Amino acid sequence: MLIEYPPSLLQQAEDSLKGHHLTGFVAGQGPKHPKIMLIGEAPGREEAKTGVPFVGASGKELMKLIEEYLHMTREDVYITSVVRRRPYSIKRVKDKKTGAVVEKTPNRTPTKAEVYAYARLFDWELDQVRPKILMPLGNTSLQRLLGPSTKIGSLHGQILHCPIQRAASDHQGYVMSDQSYTVIPMYHPAAFLYARKLEPIVRHDWEAIAQKLDQLETDKI
């Protein structure tokens, strides 16, 4: 299920982002009230092209991890991101074969302003989906939830029970929620695609989290 957002929230985000280099649109996807909401930073090229979250190289790695360690499929989890359009930069480079200058549009990390533009939409989505666990993947989504001083390098693989940031009603930044959430920060799968030395750490985190979640379920019985 692809979620349908209120037009007013979509328009507010669009109005805030005029002049920004963003393309495509990718809605969140998955069941309501899932065990886990996976939260990325923004769509990449493949996601912007298809309109489906996490279908590129990183998405394929992520699906392998949740299947191998959590014994879940894409249909079992809710998948979204804190920015809904693909951020890109414009670079002019010389073609090695022809010598001609060509324009390229690689992915880039979204800015804080771009994340904030979608803050109310993300809050609304979270209230609709109501997952048991929030799993931010990488620094951008982690900092959207827990603030700019948090780092994935120090929090990855931990189970946190804490308030999260929500957009302030006066449109001036964020406030911490009254409600506490279960948050499990994890490395973005792209991290070990580009730095293979991280792969053992990432796999250890997923294995440990799978065991802890199994134990939590056992304790409830």
Automatic annotation (TrEMBL):
Cite the Uracil-DNA glycosylase-like domain residue spans from the record.
27-207
Matching entries from SUPFAM superfamilies are given as:
Uracil-DNA glycosylase-like
**Which Pfam families does its entry note?**
UDG
Print the keywords alphabetically: 4Fe-4S, DNA damage, DNA repair, Hydrolase, Iron, Iron-sulfur, Metal-binding
One biological process term in Gene Ontology: DNA repair
Task: Report if keyword DNA damage is assigned.
Answer: yes
One GO MF term on file is: 4 iron, 4 sulfur cluster binding
Organism domain of life: Bacteria
Identify this protein by name: Uracil-DNA glycosylase-like domain-containing protein
Species assigned in the record: Limosilactobacillus mucosae (Lactobacillus mucosae)
